[in-house]
Amino acid sequence: MRVQSAARGQMGLYVQPQNYSLGDEGLDAISYLNSRATFDYDLNNLYNGGLNLSGATIRYPSHLPYEMGYENQSYLNRNGFKLDTSKFEDKGANNSSIFVSQFRQNFSSLENLRGKIFLVAKDQYGCRFLQKKFEGGNPEEIQFIFSEVKDYVRELMVDQFGNYLMQKFFEICNEQQMNQILLLVISDERSLLAICLDMHGTRAMQKLLEHLTTPEQRSLVISVFRRITVTLTKSINGHHVIQHCLKFFSTQDNKHILNVVADNCLGIATDKSGCCVLQQCVAHANGKPWERLVGEITANALVLSEHPYGNYVVQYILGLKIPQVTAKILEQLAGAYASLSMNKYGSNVVEKCLKESEEHLALEIVNEIIRSPNFLMVLQDPYGNYVAQSAMAISKGAIRHAMIHLIHIHYELLHSHPHGKRVLAQIRGRKQRV
């Protein structure tokens, strides 16, 4: 049995990041604050100084921090002098829990947080509080929060907590609010790209795309995406944004993206993330965009077949089992089947050709391989021997007898060879079954 390496696995196994709501379990799992820091509890001063994720000002002591449990002891430093650590004693070791308690008390009403909603949204507890307000469905509270955060949408979309609030808002906002958000998000192309490439921003952007309800909104976002499509398709985070467009928009909506992908087919197909996007483009397209994509892949079939990622695209097209398309790919590969059989990635494509082609076309491939002057090399190759076994399995009649005859001629060179003996075992197995 052929042992598949990681490189020979299916690229379709990539899992898209899911859009999770910020539940209690996820929030509590995040370390909140450094328990040995000194904090300023006044929310009015949150704009001043360095902000941590909770929105609190952290005043780190200028002296060296002590080690827990040794406050009142003296030790020798590296120069041999004693260092008195008693003056470093932290009088507020439990300030973290006190701060959290006092900060939560300010979440009793939105009015108490006027002018500070943006900062609250970037805090794990504050984000949860605001999400619950959205879930309550009060239009006045939703509008209040929206008016406070709308100018900070791009920053919140890439924040580890704020992105959850924006995802929730995209689910419940009305058309007018969505229009304002959309214009703010796409107004700066560089910021838009940064959002899509960010691990938090990509989830928020995907949620936004899911809830675009009008043709005008979709047209607007596609008009901007078309200029950054190639970069997004090659990003581990950004390619999910393009796939969301393919999933939730029509071919007509996506025609500009599909054209850009077709224009850059070879570069995208040979990228780890891009090859997945290209397959999805073919899956969701129809009409002329589909024909153009398939035509570009077919024209580059030989180059793609030998590539670590491109070979998956060729196999995907063969797997569609469209006779005229398969025939065109076989034409592109004709004359190279023996060399492809000995290529780590091309051997997969040759086996796919044998499996998915019509019988007479598959036999033509076998005939080309056994008539190659490198047929013995194919039999002894760590990848080619699998192609030979697949060829033996589908061959019939005169071609099968010719193949068996050639293998017997090279018996002495095969029976002690680690790869060649697998082909011999295939022949013996067939004889026993007969």
From TrEMBL:
Statement: the UniProt record of this protein carries the keyword Phosphoprotein: no
InterPro entries in UniProt: ARM-like (IPR011989), ARM-type_fold (IPR016024), PUM-HD (IPR033133), Pumilio_RNA-bd (IPR033712), Pumilio_RNA-bd_rpt (IPR001313)
UniProt-listed CDD domains: Pumilio
Recorded superkingdom: Eukaryota
Molecular function via GO: RNA binding
PANTHER family, alphabetized: PUMILIO HOMOLOG 15-LIKE, RNA BINDING PROTEIN PUMILIO-RELATED
Protein name (Swiss-Prot/TrEMBL): Pumilio12
Naturally occurring in which organism (per UniProt): Abeliophyllum distichum
